[in-house]
Write a structure and sequence with these properties.
The structure is a homodimer of 202-residue chains. Chain A has 202 residues and is mainly alpha-helical. The first copy, chain A, has eleven helices and no strands. In chain A, α1 packs antiparallel against α2, α1 crosses α6 and α5 crosses α11. The structure holds a DNA duplex (30 and 30 nucleotides).
Chain lengths: 202, 202
Amino acid sequence: MTSTQRLTDRKREAIIQAAIAEFRANGFVATSVDKVAARAEVSKRTLYNHFPSKDELFAEILRVLWRSSSSQEEVPYRTNAPMRAQLLELLMQKMALLADDSFLDLARVAIAAFIHSPERAQDMINRLGQKEGGLYGWIRAAQKDGRLKPGDTSLAAQQLESLVKGAAFWPQVTMGQPKLSTREQRKLASAAVDLFLSHYAV
Amino acid sequence: MTSTQRLTDRKREAIIQAAIAEFRANGFVATSVDKVAARAEVSKRTLYNHFPSKDELFAEILRVLWRSSSSQEEVPYRTNAPMRAQLLELLMQKMALLADDSFLDLARVAIAAFIHSPERAQDMINRLGQKEGGLYGWIRAAQKDGRLKPGDTSLAAQQLESLVKGAAFWPQVTMGQPKLSTREQRKLASAAVDLFLSHYAV
DNA sequence: TGAAAAGTAAACTGCTCAGTGTATGATTGA
DNA sequence: TCAATCATACACTGAGCAGTTTACTTTTCA
């Protein structure tokens, strides 16, 4: 072979990249297969040899974006580390995910698809939700360790999460607001932790 | 006339109602004028006699939804009333708006339109945002009155708002989650106010 | 009551789109 | 080198869409 990959693999990759760009820019309905093929510099027939339909192509794009945003490690609860620092780290990590371009693309595409056809993106949204377990586990551990007030763990996790997402996710996803700078992220996380600990710290 | 309204008024109303339903269900691109006309039990030509184009019809729908969700009065800050009760009332009022069907429809349609074509819904989104001024004014007044810690008013307002919207607006708008019951609303508002006052009360 | 205003059905234009069929040329790996 | 695999160009089908035209009927109101 004359290149690093077989031709067919390069073509497939070009199609996927083009499809991501087009779906992202125009959504599912307004994206035409012809335009994707043109952008990928691939014949329409080749595209259809790789993907049996527009729906299948869309599903594959969701899978690709999903995988590329799936590299997050958990921050475990540590008995001996200070609460504030641990929570800060947790929130900063969460915001890193929320501000990740792949994740944002995924969320936007999924939400756009969802608003119009619930069934299409339902499982994707379920997976999105399940990915956010981190906070719950940490809070539960801290409660058991006696360093956070016992009580409704889900509610506490939801509150913490809302505080972050309300400024660092929803406006960006739904209204195209600019992403927060690292400095802004730190300020937001710090304020959220202060608020949270004022009420939940033992 | 044989009825409460002139025929032409009834037809116009039927078109608007059908258009709301269709745009809401399918979004702008996937909604066909033929289907709107059929749903309204109106000939296509009649529709075009009332509205010169699909874009104009869409714009009118946004205006109608906007007006029908525009009936909110302000809750003013009162020096002599207890903080907790006042905040609760404020948040419950906010949630009433967020859970209003017209407002939800408007937000969904605007967001869907936005994700695909920023310019189309930009001004609508601006107006949506401006409608949420209430919290800021109240907090600022309470700060000046010495009953809330002075500090970053916008941040405090944003936090309070995030706490509410994170559970009572974004999941409903973007993911079709069911609306909160009044009981759930009260619990959410109560928890948000507790958290808020733990940190901000003097 | 009668003319103007509004509604109707249905066909039609010109367009875009998803997906297929085909004949031909390039790439690959044994 | 050679046969199998894959890519390409392009024409085509069948469908849906926005918007228009026409010939006709119903409603309104003075």
